[in-house]
Design brief:
The protein has five helices and ten strands. By secondary structure, the chain is α+β, with helices and mostly antiparallel strands. It starts with 6 loop residues before the first strand and ends in a 5-residue tail after the last strand. The protein binds coenzyme A (COA).
Amino acid sequence: MGLSPERSFIAGAMMFQNMVFSNHTQFGKPVGRWVMMLECKPAREDQYDKFFRFIENEDPGYIENAMRVMKITWEELRYLFRTVGEVWGIYFDDELAGFYWIEKRQNVLHLHALVLKKEFRRKGIGTWVLNMLEDKYRESIDAIELGVHKSNEVGISLYRSLGYRTVKVIEDLGFWIMKKQLTNRV
Ligand SMILES: CC(C)(COP(=O)(O)OP(=O)(O)OC[C@H]1O[C@@H](n2cnc3c(N)ncnc32)[C@H](O)[C@@H]1OP(=O)(O)O)[C@@H](O)C(=O)NCCC(=O)NCCS
Protein backbone atom coordinates (compact mmCIF):
# COMPACT_ATOMS: atom_id res chain seq x y z
CA MET A 1 0.00 0.00 0.00
CA GLY A 2 1.40 3.42 -0.96
CA LEU A 3 1.78 6.25 1.50
CA SER A 4 0.16 9.62 0.90
CA PRO A 5 2.58 12.57 0.83
CA GLU A 6 1.47 13.59 4.31
CA ARG A 7 2.58 10.27 5.73
CA SER A 8 6.06 8.89 6.03
CA PHE A 9 8.45 6.91 8.12
CA ILE A 10 11.67 8.26 9.47
CA ALA A 11 14.44 6.21 10.96
CA GLY A 12 14.53 6.46 14.70
CA ALA A 13 17.27 5.63 17.08
CA MET A 14 17.08 1.98 17.88
CA MET A 15 16.50 1.50 21.56
CA PHE A 16 18.49 -1.07 23.41
CA GLN A 17 17.94 -2.60 26.75
CA ASN A 18 20.16 -4.78 28.74
CA MET A 19 18.33 -7.96 29.37
CA VAL A 20 19.41 -10.08 32.26
CA PHE A 21 19.02 -13.81 31.99
CA SER A 22 19.84 -16.35 34.63
CA ASN A 23 23.61 -16.54 34.07
CA HIS A 24 24.49 -13.89 31.58
CA THR A 25 23.59 -10.45 30.31
CA GLN A 26 22.55 -10.01 26.74
CA PHE A 27 23.30 -6.53 25.45
CA GLY A 28 21.79 -4.81 22.55
CA LYS A 29 18.52 -6.56 22.20
CA PRO A 30 16.29 -4.16 20.33
CA VAL A 31 13.17 -3.48 22.27
CA GLY A 32 11.99 -0.39 20.46
CA ARG A 33 10.91 0.25 16.94
CA TRP A 34 13.32 1.13 14.19
CA VAL A 35 11.19 3.70 12.53
CA MET A 36 8.82 6.43 13.59
CA MET A 37 5.71 7.42 11.75
CA LEU A 38 5.35 11.02 10.67
CA GLU A 39 1.94 12.06 9.56
CA CYS A 40 -0.01 15.26 8.88
CA LYS A 41 -3.75 15.56 9.22
CA PRO A 42 -6.06 18.52 8.61
CA ALA A 43 -6.82 20.39 11.84
CA ARG A 44 -10.07 19.38 13.45
CA GLU A 45 -12.48 22.11 14.48
CA ASP A 46 -11.61 21.61 18.15
CA GLN A 47 -7.85 21.88 17.49
CA TYR A 48 -7.63 25.46 16.21
CA ASP A 49 -7.51 27.06 19.64
CA LYS A 50 -5.06 24.45 20.84
CA PHE A 51 -2.72 25.10 17.92
CA PHE A 52 -3.02 28.82 18.45
CA ARG A 53 -1.99 28.34 22.07
CA PHE A 54 1.04 26.35 20.88
CA ILE A 55 2.39 29.52 19.39
CA GLU A 56 1.89 31.38 22.64
CA ASN A 57 3.36 28.61 24.76
CA GLU A 58 6.15 27.42 22.51
CA ASP A 59 7.31 30.74 21.08
CA PRO A 60 5.60 33.88 22.32
CA GLY A 61 7.82 36.26 20.34
CA TYR A 62 7.05 34.48 17.09
CA ILE A 63 3.44 35.52 16.80
CA GLU A 64 4.06 39.05 18.01
CA ASN A 65 6.56 39.67 15.23
CA ALA A 66 4.14 38.29 12.66
CA MET A 67 1.32 40.44 13.96
CA ARG A 68 3.43 43.59 13.79
CA VAL A 69 4.25 42.84 10.17
CA MET A 70 0.65 42.11 9.26
CA LYS A 71 -0.58 45.10 11.31
CA ILE A 72 -3.38 43.09 12.84
CA THR A 73 -4.67 42.41 16.31
CA TRP A 74 -4.67 39.16 18.19
CA GLU A 75 -8.35 38.60 17.49
CA GLU A 76 -7.95 39.32 13.78
CA LEU A 77 -5.12 36.82 13.55
CA ARG A 78 -7.18 34.21 15.37
CA TYR A 79 -9.96 34.79 12.85
CA LEU A 80 -7.60 34.50 9.86
CA PHE A 81 -6.13 31.33 11.32
CA ARG A 82 -9.57 29.72 11.19
CA THR A 83 -10.72 31.06 7.87
CA VAL A 84 -7.75 31.45 5.52
CA GLY A 85 -5.87 28.58 3.90
CA GLU A 86 -5.38 25.25 5.65
CA VAL A 87 -4.05 24.23 9.04
CA TRP A 88 -2.59 20.74 9.44
CA GLY A 89 -1.51 18.92 12.57
CA ILE A 90 1.88 17.17 12.52
CA TYR A 91 2.03 13.83 14.33
CA PHE A 92 5.13 11.97 15.37
CA ASP A 93 4.23 8.38 16.11
CA ASP A 94 0.60 9.41 16.69
CA GLU A 95 1.59 12.14 19.13
CA LEU A 96 0.79 15.73 18.23
CA ALA A 97 4.15 17.39 17.56
CA GLY A 98 3.06 20.70 16.02
CA PHE A 99 1.22 22.20 13.11
CA TYR A 100 1.63 24.17 9.92
CA TRP A 101 -0.58 26.78 8.28
CA ILE A 102 -0.48 27.23 4.52
CA GLU A 103 -2.35 29.20 1.90
CA LYS A 104 -2.25 28.72 -1.85
CA ARG A 105 -2.44 32.04 -3.70
CA GLN A 106 -2.37 31.58 -7.46
CA ASN A 107 0.88 29.77 -8.13
CA VAL A 108 2.61 30.43 -4.82
CA LEU A 109 2.19 28.46 -1.62
CA HIS A 110 2.48 30.70 1.44
CA LEU A 111 3.69 29.09 4.62
CA HIS A 112 2.16 31.25 7.33
CA ALA A 113 3.33 29.15 10.24
CA LEU A 114 5.31 26.06 11.10
CA VAL A 115 5.55 25.42 14.83
CA LEU A 116 6.75 22.35 16.68
CA LYS A 117 6.55 21.69 20.39
CA LYS A 118 10.00 22.07 21.91
CA GLU A 119 10.44 18.36 22.62
CA PHE A 120 9.90 17.53 18.94
CA ARG A 121 12.45 19.92 17.53
CA ARG A 122 15.80 19.01 16.01
CA LYS A 123 14.59 15.60 14.90
CA GLY A 124 14.25 16.47 11.24
CA ILE A 125 10.50 17.03 11.40
CA GLY A 126 10.65 20.64 10.12
CA THR A 127 12.77 19.49 7.19
CA TRP A 128 10.41 16.64 6.47
CA VAL A 129 7.35 18.94 6.47
CA LEU A 130 8.95 21.40 4.04
CA ASN A 131 10.10 18.62 1.72
CA MET A 132 6.67 17.02 1.90
CA LEU A 133 5.00 20.32 0.93
CA GLU A 134 7.33 20.62 -2.05
CA ASP A 135 6.48 17.12 -3.21
CA LYS A 136 2.78 17.57 -2.65
CA TYR A 137 2.42 20.91 -4.44
CA ARG A 138 5.18 20.73 -7.03
CA GLU A 139 2.73 20.14 -9.87
CA SER A 140 0.40 22.99 -8.94
CA ILE A 141 2.63 25.80 -7.68
CA ASP A 142 5.79 27.54 -8.80
CA ALA A 143 7.22 28.61 -5.46
CA ILE A 144 6.90 28.43 -1.69
CA GLU A 145 7.15 31.70 0.23
CA LEU A 146 7.29 32.55 3.92
CA GLY A 147 8.12 35.34 6.30
CA VAL A 148 10.62 35.04 9.10
CA HIS A 149 11.91 37.49 11.68
CA LYS A 150 15.62 38.18 11.23
CA SER A 151 16.26 37.14 14.84
CA ASN A 152 14.95 33.62 14.15
CA GLU A 153 18.30 32.03 13.41
CA VAL A 154 16.94 28.51 13.66
CA GLY A 155 14.17 29.13 11.16
CA ILE A 156 16.49 30.96 8.77
CA SER A 157 19.07 28.19 9.01
CA LEU A 158 16.38 25.58 8.26
CA TYR A 159 15.03 27.46 5.25
CA ARG A 160 18.49 28.22 3.87
CA SER A 161 19.53 24.60 4.19
CA LEU A 162 16.59 23.70 1.95
CA GLY A 163 17.35 26.30 -0.70
CA TYR A 164 15.13 29.21 0.35
CA ARG A 165 16.53 32.63 -0.51
CA THR A 166 15.69 36.05 0.92
CA VAL A 167 13.70 37.94 -1.70
CA LYS A 168 12.58 40.94 0.35
CA VAL A 169 13.63 42.62 3.58
CA ILE A 170 11.10 44.65 5.55
CA GLU A 171 13.75 46.74 7.20
CA ASP A 172 11.82 48.60 9.90
CA LEU A 173 10.15 45.41 11.17
CA GLY A 174 13.21 43.21 10.82
CA PHE A 175 11.26 40.75 8.74
CA TRP A 176 12.56 38.72 5.81
CA ILE A 177 10.49 37.20 3.04
CA MET A 178 12.11 33.98 1.88
CA LYS A 179 11.21 32.02 -1.19
CA LYS A 180 12.03 28.76 -2.87
CA GLN A 181 11.41 28.61 -6.59
CA LEU A 182 10.25 25.16 -7.66
CA THR A 183 9.85 25.75 -11.37
CA ASN A 184 11.09 28.14 -14.02
CA ARG A 185 7.58 29.20 -14.98
CA VAL A 186 7.87 32.58 -13.20
C1 LIG B 1 11.87 26.21 13.06
C2 LIG B 1 11.43 24.79 13.41
C3 LIG B 1 10.11 24.48 12.72
C4 LIG B 1 12.54 23.83 12.88
O1 LIG B 1 12.06 22.50 12.93
P1 LIG B 1 12.99 21.28 13.36
O2 LIG B 1 12.25 20.02 13.12
O3 LIG B 1 13.50 21.52 14.73
O4 LIG B 1 14.20 21.42 12.32
P2 LIG B 1 15.08 20.20 11.77
O5 LIG B 1 15.33 19.20 12.83
O6 LIG B 1 14.46 19.71 10.51
O7 LIG B 1 16.45 20.96 11.45
C5 LIG B 1 16.78 21.36 10.16
C6 LIG B 1 17.88 22.41 10.17
O8 LIG B 1 17.41 23.59 10.84
C7 LIG B 1 18.47 24.17 11.59
N1 LIG B 1 18.18 24.05 13.02
C8 LIG B 1 17.13 23.41 13.60
N2 LIG B 1 17.18 23.57 14.95
C9 LIG B 1 18.27 24.33 15.21
C10 LIG B 1 18.85 24.85 16.39
N3 LIG B 1 18.31 24.63 17.60
N4 LIG B 1 19.97 25.60 16.27
C11 LIG B 1 20.52 25.84 15.08
N5 LIG B 1 20.02 25.38 13.89
C12 LIG B 1 18.91 24.63 13.97
C13 LIG B 1 19.71 23.36 11.25
O9 LIG B 1 20.25 23.92 10.07
C14 LIG B 1 19.10 22.01 10.95
O10 LIG B 1 19.89 21.20 10.16
P3 LIG B 1 20.93 20.20 10.90
O11 LIG B 1 20.16 19.46 11.96
O12 LIG B 1 21.41 19.32 9.77
O13 LIG B 1 21.98 21.08 11.49
C15 LIG B 1 11.29 24.59 14.95
O14 LIG B 1 12.51 24.94 15.56
C16 LIG B 1 10.18 25.44 15.58
O15 LIG B 1 9.04 25.01 15.66
N6 LIG B 1 10.54 26.68 16.03
C17 LIG B 1 9.56 27.59 16.64
C18 LIG B 1 8.64 28.23 15.62
C19 LIG B 1 9.38 28.89 14.48
O16 LIG B 1 10.32 29.65 14.69
N7 LIG B 1 8.93 28.59 13.26
C20 LIG B 1 9.49 29.15 12.04
C21 LIG B 1 9.08 30.57 11.92
S1 LIG B 1 9.21 31.17 10.30
